[in-house]
């Protein structure tokens, strides 16, 4: 089971490590910084995006390991259009309800919990020890950072970044492209594109 990861970043290393623990047997990175960048931690970087596109048939799965939400989403969609078999990577010690859905090209790291009837779009990151409670709706390209807690029935728009340790009250709707600062407590709906910080969270 050979996995290609586009994006030889620190985040990419966590994707690689998670994938190996989830049963993938070999990981190869690709990054547009190649050939200057030949290694990412324990793994080799074999080429750039063009090389990956020409070698897709060699891989049982492909996933994008780029932290920037819009870039990760765009690259994921480009790979899908090119016929890549997009992998969804879930750590064996994450807890995901059998009634939850996780979109293609998304990753769920160690200690994360995704509860019943939550739906996640493609190319999302559910980072270490984050929790997404029941009936949440997450659009594509969202990063739920380590230690975030989303209560039940929370809606999050495309390409949002929910910063480390943030909490979101039940039934809150967060618009597309929103950034929630580290440690924020979101208790009201947030319109598209806003950056909010603090307890309670307010526009920056
Ligand atoms: C595995 C991983 O590493 S995953 C990555 C995890 N990282 C994160 O979650 C980071 C989240 N990012 C943040 O919280 C950032 O601070 C942001 C995006 C909210 C703001 O970043 P910037 O636009 O660069 O803001 P900047 O640092 O210039 O701060 C602007 C003001 O907001 C304040 N501020 C910034 N972030 C926060 C925050 N999280 N909570 C409260 N206040 C904040 C600053 O103190 C500053 O206030 P001042 O003008 O009174 O001095």
From TrEMBL:
<feature type="binding site">
    <location>
        <begin position="31"/>
        <end position="32"/>
    </location>
    <ligand>
        <name>substrate</name>
    </ligand>
</feature>
<dbReference type="InterPro" id="IPR020019">
    <property type="entry name" value="AcTrfase_PglD-like"/>
</dbReference>
<feature type="site" description="Increases basicity of active site His">
    <location>
        <position position="135"/>
    </location>
</feature>
<dbReference type="InterPro" id="IPR050179">
    <property type="entry name" value="Trans_hexapeptide_repeat"/>
</dbReference>
<dbReference type="InterPro" id="IPR041561">
    <property type="entry name" value="PglD_N"/>
</dbReference>
<dbReference type="InterPro" id="IPR001451">
    <property type="entry name" value="Hexapep"/>
</dbReference>
<dbReference type="InterPro" id="IPR011004">
    <property type="entry name" value="Trimer_LpxA-like_sf"/>
</dbReference>
<keyword id="KW-0677">Repeat</keyword>
<keyword id="KW-0808">Transferase</keyword>
<dbReference type="Pfam" id="PF17836">
    <property type="entry name" value="PglD_N"/>
</dbReference>
<dbReference type="GO" id="GO:0016746">
    <property type="term" value="F:acyltransferase activity"/>
</dbReference>
<feature type="binding site">
    <location>
        <begin position="9"/>
        <end position="11"/>
    </location>
    <ligand>
        <name>substrate</name>
    </ligand>
</feature>
<dbReference type="InterPro" id="IPR018357">
    <property type="entry name" value="Hexapep_transf_CS"/>
</dbReference>
<feature type="domain" description="PglD N-terminal">
    <location>
        <begin position="2"/>
        <end position="78"/>
    </location>
</feature>
<dbReference type="Pfam" id="PF00132">
    <property type="entry name" value="Hexapep"/>
</dbReference>
<feature type="binding site">
    <location>
        <position position="143"/>
    </location>
    <ligand>
        <name>acetyl-CoA</name>
    </ligand>
</feature>
<protein>
    <submittedName>
        <fullName>Transferase hexapeptide (Six repeat-containing protein)</fullName>
    </submittedName>
</protein>
<feature type="active site" description="Proton acceptor">
    <location>
        <position position="134"/>
    </location>
</feature>
<feature type="binding site">
    <location>
        <position position="164"/>
    </location>
    <ligand>
        <name>acetyl-CoA</name>
    </ligand>
</feature>
<comment type="similarity">
    <text>Belongs to the transferase hexapeptide repeat family.</text>
</comment>
<feature type="binding site">
    <location>
        <position position="67"/>
    </location>
    <ligand>
        <name>substrate</name>
    </ligand>
</feature>
<keyword id="KW-0012">Acyltransferase</keyword>
